[in-house]
Description:
By secondary structure, chain A is an all-alpha fold. Chain A has helices at 6-23, 25-28, 59-95, 97-111, 115-123, 130-157, 160-167, 172-208, 220-232, 240-266.
Amino acid sequence: xxxxxxxxxxxxxxxxxxxxxxxxxxxxxxxxxxxxxxxxxxxxxxxxxxxxxxxxxxxxxxxxxxxxxxxxxxxxxxxxxxxxxxxxxxxxxxxxxxxxxxxxxxxxxxxxxxxxxxxxxxxxxxxxxxxxxxxxxxxxxxxxxxxxxxxxxxxxxxxxxxxxxxxxxxxxxxxxxxxxxxxxxxxxxxxxxxxxxxxxxxxxxxxxxxxxxxxxxxxxxxxxxxxxxxxxxxxxxxxxxxxxxxxxxxxxxxxxxxxxxxxxxxxxxxxx
Amino acid sequence: xxxxxxxxxxxxxxxxxxxxxxxxxxxxxxxxxxxxxxxxxxxxxxxxxxxxxxxxxxxxxxxxxxxxxxxxxxxxxxxxxxxxxxxxxxxxxxxxxxxxxxxxxxxxxxxxxxxxxxxxxxxxxxxxxxxxxxxxxxxxxxxxxxxxxxxxxxxxxxxxxxxxxxxxxxxxxxxxxxxxxxxxxxxxxxxxxxxxxxxxxxxxxxxxxxxxxxxxxxxxxxxxxxxxxxxxxxxxxxxxxxxxxxxxxxxxxxxxxxxxxxxxxxxxxxxxxxxxxxxxxxxxxxxxxxxxxxxxxxxxxxxxxxxxxxxxxxxxxx
Lengths: 272, 318
């Protein structure tokens, strides 16, 4: 782990804190999720660090639990989109020809409809539950991963060691998982950070629009929705999730930048 | 045949095909549910009779392919059907809202496009010095925020704290153009910030790319001023990628409008769509989805066409 730049270390540290808070939510949250503990929209005090929300619930507690939901849904959606997108992308690259054409054109078609609009169309008829949200977000996002992993895999597929594996008599599955996947991992990991941030923004947007996480559960987008009326009276409660989202996305970006730089330096040679 | 008309016709045909396929996707997208629309509207506890009535009135007893072509052909004739939730004609509900949405998007585009190109030029002129870094930092922050939160941050600062603009964008036909501009000031500002970052960074990258060429060095050695050099010599050759990015961002703008309209309670298409998604009003959602997809695909197509037309190698074939 030598030679990590300070910015990436800072990013790792802050990202780690967010994940830790999400995992330990039930133990570190000062109050219960739905517990009404004070007046509505109380300013921050030693008792309520971030103040209270539109129903008098502790905002810090809701931010911690909301972060748990947001981070969980975003991570799960990213996992779905990466597994599906990269496996399909590698498959398209390895098989090539007609298979590749068909898969790529279908992918282009899905990408031609704006993601948010397509999600709204699908969610208008689906029951809005967390598994459905994860699947819809993951499937829609896998189109971007498909495009990247296909492009990366096409380059790797023509290298000598892949040909060697083929001549050895290995099957397509071996080529995909043992030859291409390990070599495509670096650019994919860099992309992972960006897709994760995108998933966070996406689930927050959906919840804000009222078609994401449903009450009594909450997430960062939901907290904005609940406290939006306060803005007009000068109560900044709805802006607190903004701080959380910006901090998290900048930290993840710092880590992703580092991963990306590492990837580009790898292209020169594998010595370092 | 001259390559330009051929390429243009190819792209147009491809665009139409894509549009057709997108309409299929939108139609199919509403059918991948366990039950059907009637079930979704009436809920799990609906009686079988009510479900059967609903299905008959929606034409759900017809096969899906028949329904798709009925829907598409009437949509092409401007008949978008009636809303399930209030029984009103969708086309007439949408007409005024679409106009409002396009007005908002147009205002945002008129501000963001020149601003992005100017800032891009500025960033290249002062490359790696503080103006470049400041512009990069601000634009990067604005893209790490979801649109709706950026909307509330701006509403909080400009409307609540400083009282410059109204926090809610009411708009109606009786208002003069200036009043309308005042009403959409904040949403337009948010949309500008949302697309500015991407456009400006791509402009910067495109010009920096051209700046590597030998003829730029010649111009530099001729003793031209830096800004003249960038604006007169580098910029024209960077037009194709810039126009492409501008178009893609305009397409994005039309979609970003959906969320911003909800934030500022602006009576446009986006708010209409979101309202009816929550009410599970499938015909409205399909109609709005089709319109948004059409605008999006149309602008992307336009971007393709402009980049073909701006390529001198294609315009003057050997």
